[in-house]
Design goal:
This protein is mainly α and 348 residues long. The protein folds into two domains: 128 residues, no CATH class; 170 residues, hpI Integrase, Chain A, CATH 1.10.443. It has 14 helices and five strands. The strands form two sheets. The chain has a three-stranded antiparallel sheet with strand order 3-4-5, with no helix packed on it. Strands 1-2 form a two-stranded antiparallel ribbon. Helix 2 runs antiparallel to helix 3, helix 7 packs antiparallel against helix 9 and helix 11 crosses helix 13. The radius of gyration is 25 Å and the shape is globular. About 7% of the residues have low confidence.
Length: 348
């Protein structure tokens, strides 16, 4: 079970039911990032309730709406502590939905415990045992669906030039991040035992994945050669098994790297290349889009990516324009045949 840093969420820690809920979610195996997102969202809501001089348990839909309104107009200075703060006013649409989900689950828990009879957050009325049923409310904010960002040809060349300046470890992580379409946590938590170099297969363990499902994916012989070089270098630092990617710093040398270390590497690559959109997730997005471009079936891509739902996989099909290209080609063929037929008729 993930450890919870309660000092980061003092209001949640001081509320018995909110604390119980987070502990329950941890016991259910929620990923550490998910727990952190839930806790930060509820902490933010509890702070808003304090400013409104109400108890979180007694908040109405109007109180939740006031909180949402404040988040959509929050100034860049107020967002300074956010990990993804931008100069634009208000939190991003994805963050708003994430925080509303965290608070909705909190009120679900209160309803289940009999503390209150309804859930003031949108997406339907919650009743114990039946979930969201009956009359449904329209959500407080619309959901913006953005396609994953991937670099164009020129940007990709700039990124490749920047990665050449990185350490052998970072280059190996970069290659595998693309080759196996790995998420940040999946990449950083890989262990030596996860690799089958003879068959060029990699096991992504369930406890490291977002969906909590194990999957086995292939990787290329080119990446395997780079890894062999990295493993020889790694043995000079430590002969310990376990996490394959280790710190090379004087302070933490030989220790497993953290997800934040990889995020810093990605930020440096973005800065050096001038491709500000590059992040730890870019390589995964690019790989899945390339698979769609190559004609992989949507179910094959979903299995490779470890997606629980095909909805997420469809984004990569749309991004590469494969379906549209096929329809366009078919349509143009029909139009071409029609025009040829017309011209034939005129020349007879």
């Amino acid at each position: 079970m993930c450890s919870i840093e309660w000092e980061k969420y003092p209001r949640i820690a001081g509320h018995s039911l909110a604390r119980d809920l987070l502990l329950l979610e941890a016991s259910l195996g929620r990923a550490s990032n998910t727990l952190d997102a839930y806790a930060r969202g509820r902490e933010d809501f509890f702070t808003a309730c304090s400013l409104l001089n109400i108890l979180p348990d007694q908040a109405t839909r109007e109180h939740v709406a006031l909180w949402v309104r404040e988040m959509t107009t929050r100034s860049p200075r107020q967002k300074a502590l956010s990990k993804r703060a931008s100069s634009a006013p208000g939190l991003s649409n994805a963050t708003l939905h994430q925080r509303l989900t965290a608070v909705r689950l909190f009120f679900d828990f209160l309803v289940e415990k009999g503390v209150r009879a309804d859930n003031p957050v949108g997406r339907g009325r919650y009743t114990p045992g039946s979930g969201f049923g009956g009359h449904r409310h329209r959500g407080m904010i619309s959901r913006h669906r953005k396609l994953p960002w991937i670099p164009n040809g020129e940007q990709w060349q700039a990124i490749l030039a920047a990665i050449k300046l990185e350490s052998l470890r970072n280059r190996a992580m970069f290659a595998l991040g693309y080759d196996a379409a790995l998420r940040r946590e999946e990449l950083c938590l890989l262990e030596i035992a996860d690799f089958d170099f003879a068959n060029l297969l990699l096991t992504v363990r369930a406890e490291t994945t977002k969906s909590r499902r194990t999957r086995v994916v292939p990787f290329s012989s080119t990446t395997s050669l780079l890894f062999g070089e990295y493993l020889r270098y790694r043995r000079r630092i430590t002969k310990a098994r376990g996490p394959i990617f280790i710190s090379e710093s004087a302070r933490n040398g030989g220790q497993p790297i953290s997800i934040w270390t990889w995020s810093k590497v990605a930020a440096r690559i973005a800065s050096v290349s001038g491709v500000t959109g590059f992040s730890t997730h870019t390589l995964r997005h690019l790989c899945l889009t390339d698979l769609a471009r190559s004609g992989w079936d949507i179910h094959e891509i979903a299995t490779f990516a470890g997606h629980r739902s095909l909805e997420a996989t469809k984004d990569y099909i749309h991004l590469c324009g494969r379906d549209l290209a096929g329809k366009l080609q078919k349509g143009m063929a029909q139009i071409h045949s029609w025009r040829v037929a017309q011209m034939t008729e005129q020349t007879q």
